[in-house]
Design a protein that fits this description.
mainly alpha; 2 domains; two-stranded antiparallel sheet
């Protein structure tokens, strides 16, 4: 998001937003928080099909704006002092707590699932072993038995 959009969202002047970013430059180090647009990018953003300037304050981009990433927007809410920025910062902190609780709950659920699967696997092994023993016992009962009585030689008839 661009600085002037965020200034409107946080209900501060763009000038004050940029001032706070510059005063807290260490908080915004790296392109993963924010970066400043180049002149070429600004020209592309402000180009219109008509060659006239927009009337009114802030209608045209005159200074190189800052572009903020998701992390930069969150960091910005912690350095600005408007009521809206403070509310947004609180909401971000609460969201982190909810995500942490969700992650911990997921880890607990995952541990319980692993325990359940281990127990179930052991039970299936016991059932499989019992079935294997029954199959072996049945095979032992079904073995052909030696006939009882007199056996005739192959060439003789009764």
């Amino acid at each position: 998001m661009l600085d002037f959009d965020l200034a409107e969202m946080y209900q501060v002047e763009t000038k004050r937003l940029k001032e706070q970013v510059r005063r807290n430059a260490k908080r915004f180090l790296g392109d993963d928080f924010m970066f400043e647009l180049t002149k070429t990018e600004v020209i592309e953003l402000s180009r219109s099909q008509f060659a006239t300037l927009n009337k009114g304050r802030g209608g045209n981009i005159k200074h190189l704006p800052f572009a903020f990433t998701e992390l930069g927007v969150a960091m910005l809410s912690s350095v600005l002092n408007s009521d809206t920025a403070i509310d947004i910062n609180r909401d971000i902190m609460r969201a982190f707590v909810v995500l942490r609780q969700y992650a911990l709950g997921y880890a607990e659920l995952n541990r319980k699932l692993e325990d359940f699967m281990l127990t179930t696997n052991m039970q299936f092994n016991e059932v499989y072993q019992a079935l294997a023993e029954l199959v072996e016992a049945k095979k032992a009962l079904e073995k052909p038995r030696n006939p009882i009585g007199y056996i005739l030689p192959n060439n003789q008839t009764k």
